[in-house]
Automatic annotation (TrEMBL):
Keywords: Hydrolase, Metal-binding, Multifunctional enzyme, NADP, Oxidoreductase, Riboflavin biosynthesis, Zinc. This is Riboflavin biosynthesis protein RibD. Converts 2,5-diamino-6-(ribosylamino)-4(3h)-pyrimidinone 5'-phosphate into 5-amino-6-(ribosylamino)-2,4(1h,3h)-pyrimidinedione 5'-phosphate. Its cofactor is Zn(2+). Coiled coil: none annotated. NADP(+) binds at A156, W172, T198, D202. Substrate binds at S170, R186, L206, R209, E296. Pathway: Cofactor biosynthesis; riboflavin biosynthesis; 5-amino-6-(D-ribitylamino)uracil from GTP: step 2/4; Cofactor biosynthesis; riboflavin biosynthesis; 5-amino-6-(D-ribitylamino)uracil from GTP: step 3/4. InterPro entries: APOBEC/CMP_deaminase_Zn-bd (IPR016192), CMP_dCMP_dom (IPR002125), Cytidine_deaminase-like (IPR016193), DHFR-like_dom_sf (IPR024072), Eubact_RibD (IPR004794), RibD_C (IPR011549), RibDG_C (IPR002734), Riboflavin_Biosynth_HTPR (IPR050765). It comes from Roseivivax lentus.
Length: 365
């Protein structure tokens, strides 16, 4: 990998991040067209998933695309969907070389885009910044490979691991810097997910504020009986920002009708004992098109996801305050008797954010 290829691919990845969280079920792809060392076209997946990055970059490049190199952050699509294949557009524009990190895992595309380009005489190089691209496309790749969204669990806790006082007061344990970071993380996620207890206790809006996004994340509530306030913020704004309710088969029909009348989308899920099965919840969200879930708890939902080994990334904020044993724990009971039974995560980042500490972890396996 040449330094030049790496630099232009880094530019393309940066473009793709501009609409991360706004393009589901499509990946957020970036594309840079370069001719004789000069960028002649740039594009990224538009909110809603279309148009794709490549045709936008090619339109900007015009005739300058002929003989140029296209840096694309994922294999160009090769199938006819709502739009023609991007491989056809690249070939028709006369691009001489395509650089990409890896094949698209979608079985409709996998390797076919590269094969079509090579068959047309276009040079193809892969493996450029594959690790970085993998992190950016992790939600799309998880949904394609596993049928469910990638899940990031966020917890903001005191030094002793509490998320609220004994009376339930939790605003605000962390400072303004951490809260701004969380809003940015929401903006880059397809959906923000919480449990019913969090909605009843905090009446949250769950929107990404101050980020200038054109498409707010879906607000997902996991609630077996949909026992949620019909006059709360989510109910009042369900027609403006999507609200999806994952519920059980025993949710009262009148409650379902009330929420549907408010504009909410209902997703029926299976039960596991007396709780919603977390795998069924994520499968339903994946089938509905979501690729990246930012879960903000509370403790019961967080514990359920941890027990089911469905947390892919953990984002924690630790504040310089102690609440004591009477405070509410950040995680509900996990039923762990031996340390060997606990799920392990690998640290990928730690730094100060304002007066708090951010630590990010991913699956150790």
């Amino acid at each position: 990998m040449s330094p030049t290829d790496r630099a232009f691919m880094a530019h393309a990845l940066g473009l793709g991040r501009r609409t991360m969280g706004q393009t589901w079920p499509n990946p957020s792809v970036g594309c840079v067209i370069v001719r004789e060392g000069r960028v002649v076209g740039r594009g990224w997946t538009a909110p809603g998933g279309r148009p794709h990055a490549e045709p936008q970059a090619l339109a900007q490049a015009g005739e300058a695309a002929r003989g140029a190199t296209a840096y694309v952050t994922l294999e160009p699509c090769a199938h006819h969907g709502l739009t023609p294949p991007c491989t056809d557009a690249l070939i028709a524009a006369g691009v001489a070389r395509v650089v990409a990190p890896f094949p698209d895992s979608d079985p409709r595309v996998f390797g076919r885009g590269f094969a079509a380009l090579r068959a047309a005489g276009v040079a193809v190089e892969t493996g450029v910044m594959a690790e970085e691209a993998g992190r950016d496309h992790v939600g799309f790749l998880t949904r394609v490979r596993m049928g469910r969204p990638h899940v990031t669990l966020k917890l903001a806790a005191s030094l002793d691991g509490r998320i609220a006082t004994a009376t339930g007061e939790s605003q605000w344990i962390t400072g303004t810097g951490a809260r701004a970071y969380v809003h940015a993380a929401r903006a880059q996620s397809d959906a923000v997910m919480v449990g019913a207890g969090t909605v009843r206790a905090d009446d949250p809006s769950l929107t990404a504020r101050g980020m200038g996004v054109s498409r707010q994340p879906v607000r997902v509530v996991v609630s077996r009986l949909i026992d949620l306030p019909l006059m709360g913020q989510l109910a009042r704004t369900a027609r403006d920002v999507p609200v999806w309710l994952c519920h059980g088969p025993d949710a009262p029909s009148e409650t379902r009708r009330a929420w549907q009348g408010l504009g909410a989308k209902l997703l029926p899920c299976r039960l596991s004992g007396r709780q919603l099965d977390p795998g069924s919840v994520l499968d339903a969200l994946g089938q509905a098109g979501l690729t990246r879930i930012f879960c903000e708890g509370g403790g019961a939902l967080a514990a359920t996801l941890m027990q089911a080994d469905l947390v892919d990334e953990f984002m924690g904020f630790t504040a310089g305050v102690a609440l004591g044993a009477e405070g509410r724990p950040s995680l509900g009971a996990l039923g762990i008797d031996r340390l060997a039974e606990a799920h392990r995560f690998a640290l990928i980042e730690t730094r100060a954010v304002g007066g708090d500490i951010l630590h990010r972890w991913v699956r150790a396996d």
